[in-house]
């Protein structure tokens, strides 16, 4: 199916008439759907036409047959959307939307969805976790992870060859193993589900002499870690369980190695990350992340040069793309890989699209030697607008879900990353909508006056403002950093947010109609006002690292395929791109923060002279159809020579009011030089490229839809010499330096933790208290209003107290901290003390849609878990043939807590 990365398109502040254009409507796009579902009843299909000639009616086709339809009121070239609920039988369904007006129809790309045949027992999954290094005489823990999508795991059996090692019936599944003889042993693990289905996995365990044998770390290809690490200028030795014949590194400059049969010695050259492609004597290739720490063991930050990144999914074709590690221009050298975590919090969006979307992306990224970035985008849900965002930030239920969701997201990543670096770009378009539309709809766009339900420590009606919401999001992320996450984060702002300077084709083209000087002044005004609005909204609070800006989520000639490129709003010439960097530089100067460019299109200008190293021929023109559209982004940033076919294109792309010495014209041949250095000079430290929606030109995949043009240009950037930066960003977590409020983090119990005790007994409460610019003078605590005494433990800013709960129930731990400057902070943790027999599940309701498999409910005293989508009376747990599996009496164990 077509991959849809996000539902957003920038709504530029451009004055449009209500003229009816004599052409078919813009192309509609079906919103993201899962590739497979078990139950197709009541499936909601949504579509959007983000920009273009409007339609008057539409219909949804399923395998060519109309299943629903609707009418629309045309409104110039503004966005249109529609949705309907359909019932899909088991089988494969090709869904397509047709949007029509009096001049014709436009069809969306086909979305393919497969509906299952109903309740059949699925085989469980089991994975043998990384086998530890073992020496003779050691007793070690061998563990496995197992799950069952339509039931539960009853046992996991472990064996060494034919020798049984033991059975574990509850997670985490493990057995102890005592190593007695040097050798290589096969460890087998079998998982059995509640209906008797089994799955198995195996790996090799290497046992060495007690003195260390070969004096190295043993690694098995069947159970490789995601990443190994070596310090700069140090050498580490690894002994594999098969002979190694060849190693290729995604980045050739960070390390060097020597291969001696099964032994590999790796020496760190410079701090950084890379992915290794390791070939064995059997012809197999394996992939392993390599991190080179600083000589003192400190983790590296981002590369000390302007980094390049790409959007990516964990699809088969995308992963194959990243596995293609070579030594020439067909290599896939890269610094960052990013993905969208969107669609709405909890069951509304990304969490319902599959298992561990964020965690799996982190796994693959670290394995490939790439820093994972996440575009966290959940103030909107399935669609986005000013109205939608306003409704959500004023909904107590929605925002409670939001903060639960962002916590789940970060913990999912940290479970994999374990302190390794990851990045977050926050809430594209959100602040842009309020800066642009607040005065019209609310009488003000002041982020400190627009009411929300989110306050500093509570979520309730009118508890806060946009400022307190943004600040709390930042505080939530910063809290994770203080608890061990290594996060580099910032907010996205918009080119179109400041309406007074927008003009008919956006602020970056004001030099076309106002002239160079006056147009440039308008650009500076827009950039300054947009950045200051973000600052006033709180985007720089709690140590935010950067500000992000995009261009447009769709290639210019897919958005508007005009014969004259000047008529395509987003088809920039060199002057417009220089205006873009002028805008970016103003953001940088206004905020004193580095800039991350995001969602830059990967299309290029046709007529290129570049020869493909994949075919030996010049790259063919992009035909300006979905997934193959021209844009000038790649041409500008990485440089290219191209021939134009007519005087209109020649005049447009040769224009040089900026007096850029990187632009040269010889007849009908135009050369734009690389502008990575100019981007760096404007404050840019990272440039992230990629398709914004499924019909955008795609720079990754097997093959990418641009025929590898973009990735070849990126490889030339790395091979010809990167643009250095003055510092290594993300190496150290920023701290507040002046007028800092004290901070308290809950260590035990954790925030919202459920603690189960057979009998009420004493427990240790632990909190971490820090003041970045001074000291904590007083630290007081209460539990349900009763004072308790906290004492410093003498290590890591940790304070503790012994406390015995008087009864089972819910408790509120409130910590008040006062620092030496008289600044205070209040921190609240609501947790529960329950007996093992207490059920904490919500009762099943026919009014609730249980869209995510694995959700648990209470029904008539028992706990149930759904195997697939469930809704309505017919899917009641009372229906033994339905989606619910009875887990037994509802108690602490079956509640999953």
Automatic annotation (TrEMBL):
State the Gene Ontology BP annotations. Answer: cellulose catabolic process; chitin catabolic process
Q: Give yes or no: UniProt keyword Signal.
A: yes
* A molecular-function term among this protein's GO annotations: carbohydrate binding
**Provenance organism:** Aliikangiella coralliicola
- Keyword terms of this UniProt record: Hydrolase, Signal
- Residues spanning the signal sequence: 1-22
User: Which Gene Ontology cellular component annotation is one that this UniProt entry carries?
Assistant: extracellular region
Q: Where is the Chitin-binding type-3 domain?
A: 841-887
Give start and end of each PKD/Chitinase domain: 127-210
A Pfam family this protein belongs to?
ChitinaseA_N
Q: What is this protein called?
A: Uncharacterized protein
Keyword Oxidoreductase in record = no
């Amino acid at each position: 199916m077509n991959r849809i990365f996000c539902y957003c398109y920038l709504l530029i502040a451009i004055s449009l008439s209500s003229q009816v254009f004599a052409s078919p409507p813009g192309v509609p796009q079906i919103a993201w759907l899962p590739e497979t579902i078990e139950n197709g009843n009541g499936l909601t299909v949504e579509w959007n036409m983000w920009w273009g000639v409007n339609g008057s009616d539409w219909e949804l086709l399923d395998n060519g047959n109309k299943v629903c339809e609707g009418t629309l009121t045309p409104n110039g070239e503004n966005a249109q959307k529609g949705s309907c609920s359909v019932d899909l039988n088991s089988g494969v369904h090709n869904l397509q939307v047709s949007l029509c007006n009096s001049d014709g129809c436009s069809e969306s790309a086909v979305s393919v969805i497969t509906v299952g045949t109903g309740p059949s027992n699925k085989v469980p999954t089991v994975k043998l976790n990384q086998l530890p290094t073992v020496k003779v005489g050691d007793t070690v823990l061998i563990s496995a992870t197992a799950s069952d999508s339509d039931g539960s795991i009853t046992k996991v059996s472990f064996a060494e060859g034919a020798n049984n090692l033991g059975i574990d019936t509850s997670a985490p599944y493990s057995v102890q193993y005592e190593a007695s003889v040097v050798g290589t042993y096969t460890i087998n693990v079998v998982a059995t589900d509640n209906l008797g289905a089994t799955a198995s996995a195996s790996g090799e365990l290497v046992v060495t002499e007690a003195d260390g044998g070969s004096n190295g770390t043993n690694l098995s290809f069947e159970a490789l870690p995601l990443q190994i690490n070596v310090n700069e200028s140090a050498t580490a030795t690894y002994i594999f369980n098969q002979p190694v014949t060849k190693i290729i590194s995604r980045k050739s400059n960070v390390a060097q190695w020597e291969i001696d049969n099964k032994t590999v010695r790796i020496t760190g050259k410079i701090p950084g990350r890379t992915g290794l492609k390791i070939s064995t004597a059997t012809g197999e290739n394996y992939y392993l992340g390599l991190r080179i720490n600083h000589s003192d063991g400190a983790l590296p930050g981002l590369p000390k040069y302007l980094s390049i990144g790409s959007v990516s999914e964990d699809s088969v074709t995308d992963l194959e793309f990243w596995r293609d590690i070579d030594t020439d221009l067909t290599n896939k050298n890269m610094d960052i890989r990013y993905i969208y975590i969107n669609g709405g919090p909890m069951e509304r969006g990304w969490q319902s699209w599959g298992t561990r979307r964020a965690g799996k992306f982190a796994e693959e990224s670290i394995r490939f030697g790439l820093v994972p970035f996440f575009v966290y985008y959940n103030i909107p849900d399935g669609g986005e607008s000013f109205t939608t965002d306003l409704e959500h930030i004023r909904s107590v239920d929605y925002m409670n879900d939001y903060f639960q969701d962002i916590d789940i997201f970060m913990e999912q990543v940290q479970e994999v990353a374990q302190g390794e670096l990851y990045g977050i770009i926050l809430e594209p378009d959100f602040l842009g909508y309020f800066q642009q539309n607040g005065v019209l709809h609310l009488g003000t766009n002041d982020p400190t006056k627009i009411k929300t339900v989110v306050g500093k420590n509570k979520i309730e009606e009118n508890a806060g403002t946009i400022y307190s919401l943004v600040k709390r999001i930042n505080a939530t992320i910063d809290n994770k950093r203080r608890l061990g996450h290594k996060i580099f984060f910032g907010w996205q702002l918009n080119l179109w947010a400041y309406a007074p300077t927008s003009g008919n084709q956006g602020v970056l083209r004001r030099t076309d109609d106002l002239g160079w000087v006056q147009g440039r002044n308008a650009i500076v005004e827009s950039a300054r006002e947009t950045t200051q609005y973000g600052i006033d909204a709180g985007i720089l609070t709690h140590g935010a690292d950067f500000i992000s800006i995009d261009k447009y989520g769709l290639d210019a000639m897919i958005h508007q395929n005009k014969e004259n490129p000047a008529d395509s709003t987003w088809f920039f010439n060199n002057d417009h791109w220089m205006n873009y960097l002028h805008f970016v530089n103003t953001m940088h100067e206004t905020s004193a923060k580095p800039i991350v460019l995001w969602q830059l299109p990967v299309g290029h200008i046709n007529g290129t002279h570049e020869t493909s190293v994949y075919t030996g021929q010049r790259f063919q023109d992009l035909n300006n159809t979905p997934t193959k559209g021209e844009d000038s982004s790649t041409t500008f940033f990485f440089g290219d020579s191209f021939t134009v076919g007519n005087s209109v294109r020649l005049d447009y792309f040769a224009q040089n009011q900026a007096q850029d010495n990187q632009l040269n014209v010889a007849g009908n041949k135009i050369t734009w030089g690389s502008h990575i250095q100019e981007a760096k000079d404007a404050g840019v430290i990272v440039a992230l490229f990629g398709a914004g929606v499924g019909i955008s030109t795609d720079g990754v995949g097997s093959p990418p839809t641009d025929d590898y043009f973009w990735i070849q240009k990126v490889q030339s950037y790395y091979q010809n010499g990167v643009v250095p930066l003055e510092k290594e960003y993300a190496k150290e977590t920023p701290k507040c330096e002046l007028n800092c409020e004290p901070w308290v983090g809950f260590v035990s119990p954790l925030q919202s933790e459920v603690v189960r005790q057979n009998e009420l007994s004493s427990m240790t409460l632990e909190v971490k208290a820090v003041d970045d610019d001074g000291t904590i003078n007083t630290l007081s605590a209460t539990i349900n209003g009763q004072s308790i005494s906290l004492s410093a433990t003498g290590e890591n800013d940790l304070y503790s107290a012994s406390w015995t709960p008087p009864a089972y129930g819910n408790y509120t731990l409130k910590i008040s901290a006062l620092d030496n400057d008289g600044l205070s902070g209040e921190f609240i943790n609501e947790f529960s003390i329950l007996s093992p027999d207490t059920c904490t599940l919500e009762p099943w309701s026919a009014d609730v849609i249980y869209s995510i498999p694995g959700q648990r409910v209470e029904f008539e005293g028992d706990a149930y878990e759904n195997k697939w989508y469930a809704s309505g009376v017919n899917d009641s747990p009372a229906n033994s043939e339905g989606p619910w599996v009875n887990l037994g009496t509802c108690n602490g164990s079956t509640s999953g807590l």
